[in-house]
Amino acid sequence: MLLSIGMLMLSATQVYTILTVQLFAFLNLLPVEADILAYNFENASQTLMTFQHDLVIDFQLKV
User: Fold this and answer.
1) Closest CA to 13 of 1, 21, 2
2) What's the mean per-residue pLDDT of the chain?
3) Rounded CA gap, 59 and 63, in Å?
4) 10 Cβ partners below 8 Å, 6+ apart?
5) How far apart are CA 1 and CA 16, in angstroms?
6) What Cα–Cα distance (Å) separates residue 57 from each residue in 16, 40, 42, 50, 63?
7) Origin, by domain of life (predicted)?
8) Radius of gyration of the chain (CA)
């Protein structure tokens, strides 16, 4: 069964539409990605500070 080349190719309008939708979706999700990265960084910093605080307390108790 042979398919014509026309059935396999997308028209220029369809390609433009697909790429435009993907671009807008990507641009709209950038702030979400930035929020996630900022939250993860803040959470990691808080965890590190808590760990350092616990080490100081343990050291003071042993001395």
Assistant:
1) 21
2) 72
3) 6
4) 18
5) 30
6) 61, 26, 23, 11, 10
7) Eukaryota
8) 27
Structure tokens at 15: 């390609």
13-42: per-residue pLDDT in tens?
788 888 898 888 888 877 777 777 777 777
Q: Which residue has the tokens 């001395």?
A: 63
* CA atoms of 58 and 63, how far apart (whole Å): 9
Secondary structure element (H or E) that encloses residue 47, with its range: helix 12-62
Residue 37 tokens, joined: 């990265």
Query: Which of 52, 51, 32 shows the shortest CA–CA distance to 40?
Result: 32
Separation CA 25–CA 21 (nearest Å): 6
Residue with tokens 């433009």: 16
